[in-house]
């Protein structure tokens, strides 16, 4: 029950965080937004772990394992997800990315020996199907974001790569969490790894494209400034990014790791993937636009799957 509630809490955090992120992402772009929010969350988690003494639960091997988990789950997963998002549009992207839940269950069975009971398998299938239906059957949109850009096959393939990265990141972290690692310390390692990688990638990109900013063969102060404070960033946007990061990444990831520490990785991944369903009533409340009947039907299927899972 602890694992189930933690996973559902993570999904709720990600749903609410997604609403907060809409404005900053549109102004800054997804890559700069991700780099700034991961940096903020990494600093907060490092401070929290130090104050709470969580480092004592991690040895060098566990820290390296969690760093690899962050590299695959956050860096590779997010970069692939954002790339496919620009090609497929948000609706198709979410539907395909929902495959990360059954992929996690399969990897957990193959690599960790975590078997699922027959009714739990049905529950996982219903939740995954419900999430896909809730997104796919939302009111149709003719917005340019929904248009396919470039190769459909490439977009789908990269989105599946993002799902595999997320699944692999969870599977790699699972044994460390089950051994008693502190969730906040573990989240700090994963997020700090991702923040450093995104900053490094941003610096390399700036170096390649900013010849005039490179006066002495190193990264100039102007380049570093743009990495930490990208163009268009205002105090209001900074607060929104911090809110999204602390809620969605900080608390959401910590809850996900709590779930992995106490439950089956496939079940935790499935329940935490409910964000597209949980966001429906939030969007209705904030925008006044009622989701379509198809979206509610998908949500009902997902809720039925949750009921099967939590009652096993």
How would you portray this structure in words?
The structure is a single chain. Mean pLDDT is 85; it is low at 211-220. By secondary structure, the protein is an all-alpha fold. It has 13 helices and no strands.
Which characteristics define this entry?
single chain, 312 residues, mainly alpha, 0% strand
Give the fraction of residues assigned to helices: over 70%
Number of domains: 1
Q: What percent strand?
A: under 5%
Order of helices and strands: HHHHHHHHHHHHH
* Separate helix tally: 13
Average pLDDT taken over every residue? 85
Alpha carbon gap, first and last residue: 10 Å
Shape assignment: globular
Radius of gyration: 19 Å
Structural class: mainly alpha
User: Major sheet: size, sense and barrel closure?
Assistant: none
Number of strands: 0
Uncertain residue segments: 211-220
How does the SSE layout of this entry go?
Layout: H1 2-28, H2 30-52, H3 60-88, H4 90-97, H5 100-112, H6 118-136, H7 152-178, H8 183-209, H9 221-228, H10 235-262, H11 265-272, H12 275-287, H13 293-310
Helix pairs in contact: 1-2, 1-10, 1-11, 1-12, 2-8, 2-10, 3-4, 3-7, 3-8, 4-6, 5-7, 5-11, 6-11, 6-13, 7-10, 8-9, 8-10
In short:
The protein has 13 helices and no strands. With 312 residues, it is mainly α.
